[in-house]
């Protein structure tokens, strides 16, 4: 068992029971300067994690940082072959997608250019999987980082160990002495807004309340499914802080075979007219799919 699994062994002992977490719930893991708050007491039942699930740790250098990421088999967690996606059952969160690395690189560049600061900010990562962009924000001084993924199993076996390992590894190098409150949410984009702590109940509240909402929303490789795009966009509008909230989206220009892509999502954004968008980065190699990072904000 690798360092990630060892660091989180006690905290990870059964965050899900009887499938309840798949219906939506939240978990608090407060990290910072060596302090850890045990997340018991939130109504989450604790059971034993299958000893057959192994989490191996490996370093990855992105955006000027060396982050730790876990590696878990889809066969062990979901009893599936190592597939990228099984709609409605497994949404690919155990794989570290290129977009996550593109996003962190773009965020680092934005910070160097003075276009972005995470210090004291409330951050939400949607469809987090490994959660590395959210972890990057935490290490760069965010006041709180909330991680959301469709699959509770991904959060249990991968996201939480990654958060624990990276915060403890970088504990002496954090951008601030204040604790970064970390929350973990499982659920579908059409329903998870009822769990998130920084959302508006309707669009009128977005215009009136300038204290709620997330300062920065991060998402990588979330726009591949055409059918999920409307709910994703509605969730973003409910979550984004008025008037200065920012969304950073990393995605492939087109996802061949499934129909989604950055441009398909942006067409929904443009049609609605509430958000403005600008291209931050484009990654091309002349042979594979074009990848992009976009920034969106309220008009």
Automatic annotation (TrEMBL):
MF GO annotations: protein-L-histidine N-tele-methyltransferase activity
Alphabetic keyword roster: Cytoplasm, Methyltransferase, Nucleus, S-adenosyl-L-methionine, Transferase
Any single GO BP term: methylation
Species this chain originates from: Buddleja alternifolia
Enzyme Commission number, as recorded: 2.1.1.85
Phylogenetic classification of the source organism: Eukaryota, Viridiplantae, Streptophyta, Embryophyta, Tracheophyta
Enzyme's top EC category: transferase
GO cellular component: cytoplasm; nucleus
InterPro entries cross-referenced by the UniProt entry: Methyltransf_16 (IPR019410), SAM-dependent_MTases_sf (IPR029063)
Keyword Transferase in annotation: yes
Homology family: Belongs to the methyltransferase superfamily. METTL18 family.
Name under which the protein is recorded: protein-histidine N-methyltransferase
Subcellular location as annotated: Cytoplasm; Nucleus
Main subcellular location: cytoplasm
Keyword Cytoplasm: yes
